[in-house]
Amino acid sequence: MLVSRIFGRTLLAAVRSETSSATAAAASVTRNPLQEFFEVDRSIDDDKPVVYGRSWKASELRLKSWDDLNKLWYVLLKEKNMLMTQRQMLHSQNLRFPNPERIPKVRKSMCRIKQVLTERAIEDPDPRRTAEMKRMINAL
Question: Which is an annotated GO molecular function term of this record (predicted)?
Answer without folding.
Answer: structural constituent of ribosome
